[in-house]
Amino acid sequence: MTRLLVGYDGSRASGAALRTAGVLFAGAQTTIVAVHLPQAAFEPAVLARAGEPPAAILDRTLDDSGEQAEHARELVREGAELAAAAGLRAQSLVLAGTHPAKALRHAALGAGADVIVCGTRGEGPLGRGLLGSTALSLAHHAERALLVVPAAERVGNGPLLAGYDGSYGARQALRFAARHVPQRRVLVANVWDSPVRHSLRGRALQHSGVEFFEEYADTIDTIWREVAEDEAAEGAAFARDQGLAADPIAHESARGACDGLLRAADDTDALAILVGTRGRGALASAVLGSVASGLVHRAHRPILLVPARGAR
């Protein structure tokens, strides 16, 4: 049985995350986690080092850690009720920590969770940066699969859209889907960028008025499209070998794989976008996981990230 660990803070985004998890992983064993700051985090010396003004320090030190813990217990009770309503089998856990993402990662390892679930708030890089730091940190560092759900999520009725580029990470993501969401139809998408349609030289050839040049440009465009179709077909065949109902799709985009996947998800009303990630840590993600990072920043649909390493 799939095991989920859900970070819940009472926000609209975390409620959306629970609802989406219930659709994707119906009946999963779920641990609802709320993280509260320990008393040490409110001590004047700690806050003063963080640059808090004196009045704010006084107000916050009056807030007893017992009240913080009780608020966290109320949150997990509320989260457990929402989880049950979403068809999940829920239990609760309250953690103390100054770094919610790190606390969730450690809890997921301890609970043997297959997936960490969290919400993000706001849209675009600014909203994610101010309010979605936990989700971004988990996307960079989580050892388990991560389901990220934006507050304004669009719950589609369509398939799971899996980005596929032939890499080990992409295959790991499809293996994960076969183990944990085998009932969901999968569209295996390869995103390609025409060297003809979006370059000055290519457009000049296409509209040159010279038949030879126009046919040459069309041939180049066709070759690139067919390569993408072959890649998607390879991914779909691999998914079917894993027991999934899968079909290929090639999507052309001049703005890169991230934009192409988002547009393909809209076109197909995808329930979520599934991608594999490569490496761990901020540097590895920046170099090798730009598509995954871009999706977390920009997506208005749920994103399911599966790390190539450390995935169960």
Task: Report on the architecture of this protein.
The protein has 312 residues and is of the alpha/beta class. It has two domains: 151 residues, HUPs (Rossmann fold), CATH 3.40.50.620; 145 residues, 3-Layer(aba) Sandwich (Rossmann fold), CATH 3.40.50. Helix content is 50%, strand content 20%. It is built from 13 helices and ten strands. It has a ten-stranded mixed beta sheet with strand order 3-2-1-4-5-10-9-6-7-8, with helices on both faces. It starts with a strand and ends in a 5-residue tail after the last strand.
For the record, the CATH architecture of the largest domain stands as 3-Layer(aba) Sandwich
Which oligomerization state do the chains in this entry correspond to? single chain
Are there runs of 5+ residues with pLDDT below 50, and where?
Answer: 40-50, 54-64, 122-131, 279-288
Helix content: 40-55%
Q: Rg from C-alpha positions?
A: 22 Å
Instruction: Write down the overall mean pLDDT.
Output: 79
The figure for the number of domains is 2
Compact description:
The chain has 312 residues and is α/β, with parallel strands linked by helices.
Feature tags:
single chain; 312 residues; alpha/beta; Rossmann fold; 2 domains; 10-stranded mixed sheet; 50% helix; elongated
Could you outline the blueprint of secondary structure elements for this entry?
Layout: E1 3-7, H1 12-24, E2 29-36, H2 44-49, H3 54-61, H4 65-85, E3 89-96, H5 100-111, E4 115-120, H6 124-131, H7 133-141, E5 145-150, E6 160-163, H8 168-180, E7 186-192, H9 200-206, H10 211-241, E8 246-252, H11 256-268, E9 272-277, H12 282-288, H13 290-298, E10 303-307
Parallel strand pairs: 1-2, 1-4, 2-3, 4-5, 6-7, 6-9, 7-8, 9-10
Antiparallel strand pairs: 5-10
Helix pairs in contact: 5-7, 6-7, 7-13, 9-10, 11-13, 12-13
